[in-house]
TrEMBL record:
Transmembrane segments: none annotated. Residues 10-70 form the HTH tetR-type domain. Keywords: DNA-binding, Transcription, Transcription regulation. It comes from the Bacteria. It comes from Epidermidibacterium keratini. This is TetR family transcriptional regulator. InterPro entries: Homeodomain-like_sf, HTH-type_TetR-like_transc_reg, HTH_TetR, MT1864/Rv1816-like_C, Tet_transcr_reg_TetR-rel_C_sf. The keyword DNA-binding applies. Residues 33-52 bind DNA. The keyword DNA-binding applies. GO terms for molecular function: DNA-binding transcription factor activity; transcription cis-regulatory region binding.
């Protein structure tokens, strides 16, 4: 005879998202099931369906939470650095570090099927805006301080993001070590 799960106090949706995020630290998205998330959240296996229509919807919401964690890491990265180029380098390094520390979460954040480019969820849209604005402002400040001052800021920002993202992906796939990625960032962000 099976025993039903006891009544779960608190916010079940948040518990499910927290459990899914934690499980992503251990396994890839492909190996994440609704039952496993429910078990980790200590709720019945049917509970996720009260909050998410299917696995894809849970993964989209989990991706939003992972994006929030990435943005918070980027925002805290510059710390007390006063030099604009060092602030930019710290943001880029934090981006690579997030991917290295949480590769499955990083992959989920940029999953084009779950979050099609140009069509973010209502939760993700402001997070994307925050991250883009942070990077743009950091690049602009470095330019105002004399670094690559003649380059168009938007194009340079996109290039820096592409560089950080490429390095992050190479680290998560095992093609570069974090130290090699840091050296590459240092070469790209060298003072002019």
């Amino acid at each position: 005879m099976s025993r039903s799960k006891p009544y779960h106090r608190g916010n079940v949706r948040e518990s499910l998202l927290s459990a899914a995020t934690t499980l992503l630290d251990e396994k890839s998205v492909e190996h994440l099931s609704l039952r496993e998330v429910a078990r980790a959240a200590d709720v019945s296996h049917a509970a996720p369906y009260h909050y998410f229509s299917d696995r894809g919807e849970l993964l989209k919401a989990t991706g939003d939470e992972c994006m929030r964690a990435l943005v918070e890491k980027l925002e805290s990265a510059p710390g007390r650095a006063r030099d604009p180029l060092k602030r930019l380098a710290a943001i880029c390094a934090a981006y690579v570090d997030f991917a290295a520390e949480r590769p499955h979460a990083f992959t989920l954040v940029f999953d084009g099927e779950l979050c099609p480019p140009g069509d973010p969820s209502a939760e993700r849209a402001p997070l994307i805006e925050r991250s883009e604005s942070l990077l743009y402002q950091a690049v602009s400040a470095a330019q105002q301080d004399g670094w690559r001052s003649t380059a168009p800021t938007l194009e340079l920002t996109n290039g820096i993001w592409a560089t950080a993202h490429g390095l992050a992906t190479l680290v998560t796939e095992g093609h570069l070590t974090r130290a090699q990625a840091a050296d590459a960032l240092g070469a790209v962000l060298r003072p002019s």
